[in-house]
Recover the amino acids of this structure.
């Protein structure tokens, strides 16, 4: 079934918080809290907590990057030194561990950093997947609540929003 | 009883620890956007004066580099034993400058020092451009610049025998990693602000910011992931920054030159890096505050805190400097001791004493509140501190080469010629030009972090009331 979106803009976090609480308590059919998004100019963890648990998986990418970075780093450097098997180096080790550790360390950090950022982009689903309703005043000083729900429920959701003095309610049929 | 003690403590705090506001916490969020965006549109006339002067300086540096490239390193008066000249001294100076961005962004971020918020962005930009400038000196000091890749840890299929045991190879890898990570950190932390620029720009600029902001809408999911990723990258950057300058120090410490073979060189270099970087932050703080009319954001209490931090680091550097002298003086290398005496009493004595005075005595100006609150004095002091830190690098490189183990290589009176002066001056032009361009195109004050700062203070004030 196709879903519709509605975005309400609020002047402050308190009003947005009250609207969210009422939405949560409403138990409207065809509406789930998982389909609610807060859009704000700064992070507001207390408001986000009302939406329920939304785990962050960026650390997994960091972990993968750190492991990959050290493994690939050491392997690449050691394999670059492999021709010392034939090119005699006067009895010195073919793969010298202490200096290779320095280079491995740098690659561990480099890949760790890159994978962390890539992981974050993946979590954002950017740049491809953007939520359909946006107002430029959100990046300024307003708080937006975006709801995706059955088209039949949208008027009821808007009714809840209107009880908390929104500055504006934007709607769009879609998806 | 407990309550009475608490009230007494609060009273003592009120009397003896007056809390100056870092920022006006009643400023409206919309005003923050407006002020920062306006600064990008209409800076003071001084902006163009600095930009054009930097461009001219950079142009002269390019001319000198072309001259050196066409005529060989001898044209820059480089010959044995003075093979590095001012280039490597300036390279260390620029690498050092880059550390302050990491200090302000990463270390203070982890420590939740929120006074850093209005000023960390330009410190991060300074890190990136300092590293780019430092990287140029690696190329400039090479006789055969087209063979620069010999310092990179690349596969050895041509049997050219790159020396993986050399700190120079580690150096190239560490600087490459630091530069990449710094650019990523700078860009990543700027995404919410780029979205603000996108929402307010028109025409080509709007497209540019649209592309860079990657569709940021400030959703709760985006913020949550952003916070974790930003903190994680900050955690990676701290050991990376320490490793970069330790490795630069290792270039010297593992060599056979007298006076360089000292265990304390890596921490000494790292402290020097933080010191010169903080001094540069004070300089740029004052310049940006005036040029972009940031008096509301780059406030005197924040300058005061930055100065105090610089003073603390200056004292650490002074201590490590004394440790370096003591290690040589009480060590078992008479030639190293002779080199130290040569620095203090020989042809370069003026510079050595100037370095010690500027690096260890001048920072005491930062200990006085009346001086810390005087912007022209702080501008002069910060420039003097950086001059002192540049002289420190000069004193590490030139006198050591001038007075090594073999008396027949002594070149006591050596000073560079105009080509080196031009290239070193050009590097300052290159850095300033890039930095000023950055400030015109990107928001130098982090709008979303300043909003957070204002919001948290507002909430705290409300709770107290």
């Amino acid at each position: 079934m196709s879903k519709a979106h509605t975005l309400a803009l609020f002047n402050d976090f308190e009003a947005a918080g009250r609207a969210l609480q009422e939405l949560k308590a409403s138990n409207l059919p065809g509406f789930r809290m998982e389909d609610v998004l807060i859009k704000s100019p700064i992070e507001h963890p207390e408001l986000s907590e009302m939406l329920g648990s939304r785990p962050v998986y960026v650390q997994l990418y960091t972990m993968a990057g750190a492991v990959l970075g050290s493994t690939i780093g050491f392997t690449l450097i050691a394999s670059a030194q492999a021709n010392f098997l034939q090119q005699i180096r006067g009895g010195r080790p073919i793969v010298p561990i202490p200096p290779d550790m320095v280079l491995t360390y740098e690659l561990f950090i480099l890949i760790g950093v890159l994978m962390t950022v890539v992981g974050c982009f993946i979590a954002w689903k950017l740049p491809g997947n953007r939520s359909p309703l946006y107002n430029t005043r959100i990046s300024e000083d307003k708080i937006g609540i975006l709801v995706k729900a059955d088209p039949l429920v949208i008027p009821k959701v808007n009714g809840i929003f209107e009880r908390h003095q929104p500055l504006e309610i934007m709607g769009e049929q879609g998806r | 009883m407990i309550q009475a003690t608490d009230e007494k403590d609060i009273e003592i705090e009120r009397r003896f620890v007056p809390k100056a506001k870092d920022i006006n916490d009643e400023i409206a969020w919309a005003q923050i956007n407006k002020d920062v965006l306006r600064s990008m549109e209409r800076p003071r006339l001084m902006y163009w004066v600095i930009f054009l002067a930097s461009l001219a300086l950079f142009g002269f540096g390019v001319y000198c580099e072309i001259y050196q490239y066409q005529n060989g390193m001898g044209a820059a008066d480089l010959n044995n034993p003075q093979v590095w000249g001012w280039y490597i001294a300036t390279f260390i100076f620029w690498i050092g400058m880059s550390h302050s961005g990491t200090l302000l962004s990463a270390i203070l971020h982890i420590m939740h020092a929120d006074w850093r918020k209005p000023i960390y962005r330009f410190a991060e930009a300074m890190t990136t451009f300092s590293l780019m400038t430092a990287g140029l000196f690696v190329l400039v000091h090479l006789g055969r610049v087209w063979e620069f890749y010999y310092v990179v840890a690349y596969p050895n299929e041509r049997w050219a025998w790159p020396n993986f045991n050399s700190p120079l190879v580690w150096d190239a890898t560490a600087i490459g990693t630091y530069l990449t990570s710094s650019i990523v950190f700078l860009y990543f932390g700027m995404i919410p602000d780029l979205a603000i620029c996108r929402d307010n720009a028109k025409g080509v600029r709007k497209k540019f910011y649209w592309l860079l902001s990657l569709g940021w809408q400030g959703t709760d999911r985006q913020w949550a992931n952003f916070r974790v990723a930003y903190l994680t990258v900050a955690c990676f950057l701290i050991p990376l920054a320490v490793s970069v300058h330790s490795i630069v120090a290792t270039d010297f410490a593992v060599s056979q030159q007298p006076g360089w073979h000292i265990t304390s060189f890596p921490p000494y270099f790292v402290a020097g890096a933080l010191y010169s970087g903080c001094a540069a932050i004070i300089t740029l703080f004052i310049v940006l505050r005036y040029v972009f009319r940031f008096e509301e954001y780059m406030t005197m209490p924040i300058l005061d805190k930055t100065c105090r931090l610089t003073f603390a680091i200056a004292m650490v550097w002074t201590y490590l400097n004394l440790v370096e002298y003591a290690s040589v003086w009480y060590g078992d290398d008479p030639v190293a001791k002779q080199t130290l005496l040569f620095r203090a009493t020989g042809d370069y004595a003026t510079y050595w004493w100037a370095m010690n005075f500027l690096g260890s005595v001048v920072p005491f100006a930062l200990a006085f509140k009346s001086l810390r609150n005087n912007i022209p004095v702080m501008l002069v002091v910060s420039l003097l501190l950086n001059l002192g830190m540049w002289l420190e690098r000069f004193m590490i490189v030139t006198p050591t080469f001038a007075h090594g183990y073999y008396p027949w290589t002594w070149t006591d009176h050596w000073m560079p010629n105009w080509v080196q002066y031009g290239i070193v001056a050009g590097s300052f032009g290159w850095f300033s030009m890039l930095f000023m361009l950055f400030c015109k195109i990107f928001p130098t004050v982090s709008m979303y972090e300043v909003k957070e700062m204002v919001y948290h203070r507002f909430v705290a004030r409300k709770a107290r009331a």
Notes: DSSP finds five helices and four strands in chain A. The mean pLDDT of chain A is 87.
